[in-house]
Amino acid sequence: MSNAPAPAQTAPLRPVGSPDEAETLIRHMLDVMDALLGTVEEETELVRAGNLVDAARLEPHKTELSQMYLADTARIRASQGYLAKSAPAMVDELRKRHEGFRALLQMNLTVLATAHAVSESIMRGVSGELARKATPAAYGASGRPAAPSAAARQPLTLSRVL
Fold first, then answer.
1. How far is CA 155 from the centre of its chain?
2. Span 52-83, pLDDT tens digits
3. What's the predicted TM-score (pTM) here?
4. CA count, 13 A, side-chain hemisphere, 148
5. Is residue 139 helix, strand or coil?
6. Strand (E) or helix (H) holding 83
7. Residues 13-57 pLDDT 10s
8. What is the DSSP letter of 145?
9. Burial per residue of 93-112, b for 16 or more beta-carbon CB atoms within 10 angstroms, e otherwise
10. Per DSSP, what are the bridge partners of residue 139?
11. Quick one: the chain helix, strand, coil %, rounded to 5?
């Protein structure tokens, strides 16, 4: 994905020292947030559509953007006092955008948790069905069909090659 912003400077964490530097940092943070939001939205849609392989391919790009986001966040925290005095309007814009960012991330986490729960339920169902089929059809001492034994439950294997 070539539209991602360039990584922030890797210099030691130091507070912002000039208005131009403050504006550059905040603009970079906004660009990173936009790119990360785009990636998260794409991942959410892919997971909702069941395209988990395509969603997994976004992981390296999402990780890179997340690292830039964390680096910018740390630098902004180190520069909080200066930024509040030198660029209050940009700080307000950043706060507002960050609230929307959090809401979208929460929706993404909900979609991922739902997909995880559904896939886990499917795997448990398949495992139970395989164990049931592997158990001989017999009746127990109570006169009811015998439940699958622990020995009948075998681990599932999953082939990722389709």
1. 28
2. 889 999 999 999 999 999 999 999 999 988 88
3. 0.68
4. 14
5. strand
6. helix 80-86
7. 788 888 899 889 999 999 999 999 999 999 989 988 889 889 999
8. B
9. ebeeeeeebeeeeeebeebe
10. 145
11. 65, 0, 30
